[in-house]
Write a structure and sequence with these properties.
CATH superfamily: Formyl transferase, N-terminal domain
Helix content: 25-40%
Number of domains: 1
Number of helices: 7
Shape: globular
Oligomer: single chain
Radius of gyration: 16 Å
Strand content: 15-25%
CATH class: Alpha Beta
Order of helices and strands: EHEHEHHEHEHEEH
Largest sheet: 7 strands, mixed
Strand order of the largest sheet: 3-2-1-4-5-6-7
Distance between the termini: 11 Å
């Protein structure tokens, strides 16, 4: 049995797609949903699926030895970031080397780094008149959006696409491809 912890800061639509995908897999369990925001809707989604939740209200808690050991006690095999907006501390990375992955709503290395998430990314892509965008699924290291790529998938940007339309295209890619990439990473553990 492989156990996944999903970290999310917002609505949790990607988290829900991951939960749904693995609900029918007897070899994978979504064991925990972690959020840094007490009002994040992802926590409600977790309750709907009877998944344990944990609030990490600060970088200090996220980077604590207590939290890393808690994840180990829960026998977490893989940490999946799904719209989690805090930088993962070095201590946590050292406890889960090559076992923390993230999804980014652009084709890294373009449009990555601190502050580049969600509509900020889509607005920048459209403003720069790029012809394509997409998603990048990557391993997490000590820098924002800097880890080794696992998968990139592209989509065309039409001349009339605004950031909202691009966001919808990207979300479809995320919902389809993130669970598949997670399966690939789990198979290699």
């Amino acid at each position: 049995m492989k156990r996944i912890a999903i970290f999310a800061s917002g609505s949790g639509s990607n988290a829900e797609k991951i939960i749904e995908r693995f609900a029918i897999n007897p070899n994978v369990e979504i064991s925990l949903i972690v959020s840094n925001k007490a009002d994040a809707y992802v926590l409600k989604r977790a309750q709907n699926y009877n998944i344990e939740t944990r609030l990490v209200p600060s970088k200090k808690v996220l980077g604590s030895l207590e939290f890393a050991e808690y994840l180990q006690e829960k026998e977490i095999d893989l940490i999946v970031l799904a719209g989690f907006l805090l930088l993962i501390p070095s201590l946590l990375i050292s406890y889960f080397p090559d076992r923390i992955i993230n999804i980014h709503p652009a084709l890294l290395p373009k449009y990555g780094g601190k502050g580049m998430y969600g509509m900020h990314v889509h607005t920048a892509v459209v403003k720069n008149r790029d012809k394509e965008s997409g998603i990048t699924i990557h391993y997490v290291n000590e820098k924002y959006d800097d880890g080794k790529h696992i998968l990139q998938v592209t989509c065309a940007i039409e001349k009339d696409d605004d950031p909202k339309i691009l966001s919808e295209k990207i979300q479809k890619l995320e919902h389809l491809h993130y669970p598949i990439a997670i399966e690939k990473v789990l198979a290699e553990l």
